[in-house]
Design a protein that fits this description.
By secondary structure, the chain is of the alpha/beta class. The protein has one domain (about 10-265): Rossmann fold (3-Layer(aba) Sandwich). The protein contains 9 helices and 9 strands. It has helices at about 20-30, 40-50, 70-80, 105-130, 155-175, 205-215, 225-235, 245-255, 260-265; strands at about 10-15, 35-40, 60, 85-90, 95, 135-140, 180-185, 200, 240-245. The strands form 2 sheets. A 7-stranded parallel sheet has the order 3-2-1-4-6-7-9, sandwiched between helices. A two-stranded parallel ribbon has the order 5-8. β2 (about 35-40), α2 (about 40-50) and β3 (about 60) form a beta-alpha-beta unit.
Length: about 280
Amino acid sequence: MDFPIKCGVAVITGAASGIGAALAINLAARGMNLAIADRNAEGLAATAEAARAHRVTVSEHVLDVRDTEALTALPEAVLALHGRVTLLVNNAGVALMGTFDQVSMDDFAWVMDINFWAPVRLTRAFLYALHREETAHIVNISSIFGIIGVPGNVPYCASKFAVRGFSEALRHELVGSPITLTVVHPGGIKTAIADSARLSQGIDPAEARAATAEFNKLLKTSPQDAAEQIVQSVLKRRGRLLIGGDARMVDRFQRIFPMTYWKRISRGQPNVAAGMAPKKDA
């Protein structure tokens, strides 16, 4: 039997734009009530307005997922408004451009706090409510960069590999419980995450912008298509989802060539680390 979406309640982080917004609207169209969270109040309000057009209940929670007190308080606020939670989507994420020697420990921690620790904390915070349901589901958004290591993206890859490991181990622990879990590895999705990436010190901004523009040319899948694939995986309670032909290709290369996949994948592609080499006078 398909996962019961209609009349359920989904908590979605990073819902002001990109995959999070598309997923919220997709689920609302299927009759699911929403508790959506993001630090971008204006974008969150726009998502809520679009979702409410489908005559579902939507609550908006403006918060920074680095705020541990806000995350701890979120389940109480959601349950007070909705009475239950059946689906948790840990989607909020950020990127950081820079080689490892350029990245400060504060910036590294910033990426890990948002991309990894927030999903861990939110999963723990909502686990009791999810266990109360006859059937419930968790979606954790990793990345294809949670399967391969990419130069110039050490903190991002570390965080997404961590999400993958957390999700796969937790999924095994939840066997026999009412909760199932999908870990998602998107390939190139047309979102603004690269454009809004934080730059480390020593990076030439002009070169970084040029590298980002080249990288954006590789983004093929729309957030709406990604959201639909995620919803289908939730319905079938699939444990793992690769989004896009690029993600499936990269996954195969990593399996077949575990030591040399990057050399093979990057041939003829834009140098994602362009603009990140330390300057001689830095």
